[in-house]
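Attaching the record inline, Q. Sequence:
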Amino acid sequence: MCSHSSIIMMNGVLALLLLTTILAITVNHPPTIPESSSLLINSARAVNTTITDTSIDQFTFHPRPVSCGEVNLLLVGIPPYHPIVKAGGFDPKMIGAILANDTNLLVASGYNVRMLLFGPEQPLSLLQEQMADVECWEGTGVGFGERGTTDEALTVRFEETIHFFRNRVPNGPIMFNSSPTTFLPTLQRHFPIKGGVDCAKEGMPGKLLVSYAEKEEGEKRRVCN
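Structure, as predicted:
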């Protein structure tokens, strides 16, 4: 009979031979990338080569020169005295004055504007109602306060508003102001007044589109020009 030490030695030799065989096979036949992975890499490269300025251009909104009082724009935001505004450390009276002054400025600059202020606790159907009396909204916008927030309910409302605008006004831009005090540069970027006309000086301002609920009964529905 073989001794215990002889058995251990034989097992060691067999293990060494097996390891040598595996290494030899690996060297002679290196692993290859599966064809499916290769196809994925090639496909990705093919897609990238088809992305051109022309294909992207169809998704880009180009500035549309307009005449004084030509376009109807709906802008939404948070009421100045809403609890969210106070919780953010802002002075409601100051915010109210900023919103009123900016609305007047936008109208004087030649834009037909409806400023809708409502909180996230109010139903989104309110937005739908306030767009119902105007057939043609050329653009929409979301104010600074609704975007720069850490309030989850307000973030959800912002998302809902964007989805709604995208479906309700599919061919118009969804605009954002870069300053909390005015929307004017944003509107001028998307809808520059033809010839650089000063609508206020020419006596051709836009119109303040009052709330749908405030409109007189029987007033005609506003349609596209």
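Residues 4-57 form one domain. The longest helix spans residues 4-28.

More tomorrow.
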